[in-house]
């Protein structure tokens, strides 16, 4: 009974009973006792996809079937990564980049349009270069902090 439940769970993960039987018969190590270890099964299928397709004798049709199997596996991996929180929706990434760009623009305007003229007034060429290096370092530090904050929120959020 438990083996049947494990098989049904694997089928629910986008594998057909025929695919599971072929993988098991071919020696896939994901089958241990009454359990099917899905991550190992996916990895094994990725490495041994030829085992899961039934040759029809028509090379063109066989190639199409293999491509369909690859596409199903690709979609399953994406869905699985989404369920496990291993991916970030494009809209969220786009919004974050937009916010990041707006923050950088604000910082550039503040440093270059507001602060720079006051800091550079009456300075020599060497002093101006030194101040400009400081301004660039301040901008780069702010960019690094913003990037680090986003990276932390993406990996822990």
Give your account of this protein's structure.
Helices cover 78% and strands 3% of the residues. The chain has 157 residues and is an all-alpha fold. Strands 1-2 form a two-stranded antiparallel sheet. 8% of the residues are buried. The model has no long low-confidence stretch (mean pLDDT 81).
Helix and strand sequence? HHEEHHHHH
Number of strand segments: 2
Instruction: Label the structural class.
Output: mainly alpha
Measured by DSSP, the beta-strand proportion falls in: under 5%
Main beta sheet, described?
Answer: 2 strands, antiparallel
Radius of gyration from CA coordinates? 28 Å
Give the number of helices.
7
The average pLDDT value, as a whole number, equals 81
Strand order of the largest sheet: 1-2
Distance between the termini: 38 Å
Structurally, the number of domains stands at 2
Specify the helix fraction band.
over 70%
Runs in which pLDDT lies below 50 for 5 or more consecutive residues are none
User: What is the global morphology?
Assistant: elongated
Quick take:
The chain is mainly α and 157 residues long. The protein is built from seven helices and two strands.
Topology:
Blueprint: H1 2-12, H2 17-25, E1 31-32, E2 35-36, H3 38-47, H4 49-52, H5 59-83, H6 90-120, H7 125-156
Antiparallel strand pairs: 1-2
Helix pairs in contact: 6-7
